Amino acid sequence: MDETVAEFFKRTILKIPMAEMMTILKAWDFLSENQLQTVNFRQRKESLVQDLVLLCEKKRASLNDAAILDIVYTQFHRHQKVWDVFRMSREPGEDIDLFDMEQFKRSFKKILQRALKNVTISFRDAEENAVWIRIAWGSQYRKPNQYRPVYVVYYSQTPYAFTSSSQLRSNIPLLGQALTIASKHHQIMKMDLRSRYLDSLKAIVFKQYNQTFETHNSTTPLHERSLGLDINMDSRIIHENRIEKERVQRVTQETFGYYPQPRLEFAQYKLETKFKSDLNGGILAEREEPLRCLIKFSSPHLLEALKALAPAGIADAPLSPLLTCIPNKGMNYFKIRDK
Amino acid sequence: MHRSRKKLEEPQTVQAEESALVTEIQKLRRLRDKLRAEVKRRQAGVKASTANVEPDQTWEITEQEVLERKWENLKAVLQAYRFTGLSGKLTSRGVCVCISTAFEGNLLDSYFMDLIVQKPLRIHRHSVPVFIPLEELSAKYLETNIQHFLFTLCEYLNAYSGRKYQADRLQSDFAAFLAGPLQRNSLCNLLSFTYKVEPRGQSFPLCARLLYKDLTRTLPTDVTVTYQGMDALSTSWEEQRASQENLFRTKPLHHVFTSFARKGEMLDMSLVS
């Protein structure tokens, strides 16, 4: 086995936490059950990794096999990457999309390899007719850097692709082109949506986050849960402003619904607006040029935090539509200019 | 003056007074008994009248029961409407439409749409998969002809469910006949696989490619079957190949493989006998 490939194997396996080692190796499905049983998983990690690399060598594992293992690792640790979302479009009135996965892969590979001599492209099929693509970029004179790959997740016959944010931005247009042509679209644009939580991004763009519907079959009434106003509390406790509290609850439920919110870590607003003030005069009010400022809201779970603002009394209900439109519009990056 | 008179009258008047009081006592006792008797009588009378009222109350309960039974029945009918494939429930802002798909009598997934009845009529949210051309259909028909919109959407969803069902059946029930993974896509409108007519036999593997260009149908529009790695075929092999193509074109996918399985069983039986 080539030294660089062996090194790549070693570093990839070393990344895997001991607790997940068996699970990930099984998901990789390259080493058989019997072969895995010959390895002592209780030894020190460095020795375990050595044994596993030897096994891979014996089985003539290729660079592509190592790349697939890297994909499996990333699939288990998708939150370690930040994901961008691209939307593709095609001219209306096109033929029915007869998506052929193998044709897509061939086409995608061909386009990239024609443009770049040195590039490693690997595919792994995933559930829901999706594919994970791993691309290690090289250049005219340099071999691909296996330690800074880009991942793309594409669900067949949808206009959306999710890519892991990469430092090497120069190759993004090429990547976009390959995706567009291989999936038989005409245009691609980057959405103003970014998060670590790939599944939440998918839920937002596929509009899968608000899935409780009223039917005659549903037994649980929708308007059951109340956040905060506990009727069973001690009768000696009186709620002041009960009416206002109930109004806030109602407005919050109408805006945010009864479903768990998709998970985002931030919302960013870039303002380029003229300063507006109630007070007459003042230095800022006389400025002709717009003020430029950046406002960023961060949270481990931004939308749940926004949902809790009004009931907690920190903000008025209803919240600004700039905050509540995030899942609907599929945006968490905003540019606000004067109209 | 009084006292002196009383003293003179003592023996006779005391006796008279005593007897007068005794009479009074007796009179009062008689009155008391009379009153007691009257009270008892009236109490008994009230009990009797309440006893008469009870049958009325049970009659009211029955009427309530009847209404409750009617209500449960109506709810059950509304729930059963699901089986017609297209049902709905009024919401505060419009209607929530439920499209329940089925294929060959098997109830499959249900899809929902929250419609807001306003001008313009719009879809608030839905659970239709992203690869179904909902935007196209709603742009064309939602405003102008909602019936056509709903029926067309039903067609698309039922056909998708049916194709998906066939592909799932092939993968799960007839894996033994496949010589490799079944290649499919989200819409299940392109299926590609390599198979053998006999799972354990010596027959040559065949490659099948099924295209479903009509998204409202559950049978393929284009079928290509080839013997793996063979271009020129003898007449009998060519006949076989063509008949295989025809099978896939006319019968649902899993039925084709069921017939292969049955032929295999018949062959086994004939070998045994």
Automatic annotation (TrEMBL), chain A:
GO cellular component terms, A-Z: chromosome, centromeric region; nucleoplasm
Principal cellular location given in the protein's record: nucleus
Keywords: Centromere, Chromosome, Nucleus
Cellular compartment(s): Chromosome, Centromere; Nucleus
Record GO biological process: CENP-A containing chromatin assembly; chromosome segregation
Pfam families noted in UniProt: CENP-N (PF05238)
Similarity section: Belongs to the CENP-N/CHL4 family.
UniProt protein name: Centromere protein N
TrEMBL record, chain B:
Subcellular location: Chromosome, Centromere; Nucleus
Main subcellular location: nucleus
Keywords: Centromere, Chromosome, Nucleus
GO CC annotations, alphabetized: kinetochore; nucleus
InterPro entries with a match to the protein in the record: CENP-O (IPR018464)
Pfam family, one: CENP-O
Family affiliation: Belongs to the CENP-O/MCM21 family.
PANTHER family the record matches: CENTROMERE PROTEIN O, INNER KINETOCHORE SUBUNIT MAL2
Name of this chain's protein: Centromere protein O
Gene assigned in the entry: CENPO
